[in-house]
Amino acid sequence: MKDIQFFYDPISPYAHLAFLALPQALAGHSVAVHHRPILFAGLLKAHGQLGPAEIAPKRDWTYRQVQWLAHAHGLPLEMPAAHPFNPLPLLRLGLATALPDAPGETSRWVTAQLFSHVWQSGGADATDPARLQALEARLQAHVAECGRTWQDPQGDAVRQQLRANTDEALALGLFGVPSLVVDGRVFWGFDALPMVAAWLAGDAWFAPDGAWDRAATLPAAVQRPR
Question: What CATH number should be reported for the domain whose range is 2-215?
């Protein structure tokens, strides 16, 4: 069995689509998926980038494309009342449910709750206090039913874990979400799911010194000053 780290931020519609499509993409493979919430904005800041929703023409295209992808793949997706938004409350709520032996992870059920809060809400505001309170109550009840301990979403332990997850993602070379890491290889984006499946199936394209490795050796002819 292989371990797959699924790094996500519920602010990303592509992460939402990838989460929904992951079971089908991985069908037939023996894997354990670990859902790891991170702060996408932390990746952007570290790499000196703007988010896709911060570039006006790209913002329009992003919202059109994700709705088309949802339509084309038969996946549910409804735009929230406003985007982008501050995802920190959702990320911290998710980590407040983590198991003691997996402090940086959210279960698949909890991860689904975070994504559906944003992307299957009928266009509601993801940051509405009443909705966040209802989500917190739902997560607390789930934790209690599982016989686990609820952590304070605003406590130092949860805040530090989110920073640790984001730092780990940067150390692994992540630059966006969703990102899947398996066997030390980083696969980025909803459209990378077939590549993950091909890697797991032993596709010869990934052979040593093949196309995967050669892509990292291509020299840059020019670099723009920053």
Answer: 3.40.30.10
